[in-house]
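So, could you explain this one?
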Amino acid sequence: MNVTLKIFRYNPEVDKKWHYETYNIQAEPTDRVLDLLEYVKGYIDGTLSFRRSCAHGVCGSDAMRINGKNSLACKTLVRDLGDKITVDPILGLKVEKDLIVDMKPFFDNYKKVLPWFVNDSPLPADGKERLQSPEQRERFDETTKCILCACCTTSCPSFWASDDYLGPAALVTAHRFIFDSRDEAAAERIEIISETHGLARCHTAFNCTMACPRDIQVTKAIGELKMLTITGKLE
């Protein structure tokens, strides 16, 4: 099929303002948007810049806006988009070049929620790992699936308004550790997410849930954190 691919372009070294460039290329319905971008870069315009790594929906590096929706280029098929495709960088972060944005504000907020396992208690007497029941693991299993692609955070109107807002991805990560029965830093994380730029900034728009390429129920997880700050019960 013939595809009209319109790509956001901006090179700060030569451009005063961003613009779009359009490419007419042949594609298979089962091609991914990433395949089209690779074709343009390899055969038409080698200056095109975008991030990609694993190309299998695991690393999250190729998050971008495709036909107005945050998606991973490596998971989005041409057949689901039609013959007119527009690709933009994700919103709310400074564009460095073409589809590449500065991810530093995103990761700075991620680090604020202590995204690592905290447990200073001695290991069990038998020297084995700290055990969990299937039910304990089930409590936070879904939020372990986050790949830090930033699709959720950069689809959030509150983050567009202020990059001081922790954002959905950071809150999902907080959820993952707060509800882990083995972790001992729940109180500290709850204090962090209860600050001005934490949970209070979430207005339940559901953009984050719709944008997540891993199908995490992001809004639900944030709702559980809000309930936790009210009840104080880790259930």
About this structure: The first strand starts at residue 2 and ends at 9. The two ends are 52 Å apart (CA to CA).
